Amino acid sequence: MIKVHVKQQNDEIVSITVTGHAGFAEHGEDIVCAAVSALTTNTVNGIDRLANFQPIVEVDQVEGGYLYVEMRTDISSEQFSIAQLLLKNLIYGLTDIETQYPQFINIERT
């Protein structure tokens, strides 16, 4: 199962941690893992390109199944707003996947 932990403070996203594998299908054919990977990668790239800063990112390059994204504090309010919009859009997309495949992805907010 993919587990998503969204840490929020004052209704703003501070960090997102994604761990695990969906187990929907064999490696390379798992549409749930592929969808989650596409959404998360696109969000991190979008923050870099549209908000013009690189968030704090940790990934497991060897095993996969781990992504940590954290907002930085040394950015402008405009950069922050753009990044928050992208992160909230990510959560909407992941929630849609969770609605369709609840046994393969779980989102927790704290």
Automatic annotation (TrEMBL):
GO terms for molecular function: cysteine-type peptidase activity. The keyword Cell cycle does not apply. Transmembrane segments: none annotated. Keywords: Hydrolase, Protease, Ribosome biogenesis, Thiol protease. Coiled coil: none annotated. GO terms for biological process: proteolysis; ribosome biogenesis. PANTHER family: HYPOTHETICAL RIBOSOME-ASSOCIATED PROTEIN, RIBOSOMAL-PROCESSING CYSTEINE PROTEASE PRP. This is Ribosomal processing cysteine protease Prp. It comes from Granulicatella balaenopterae.
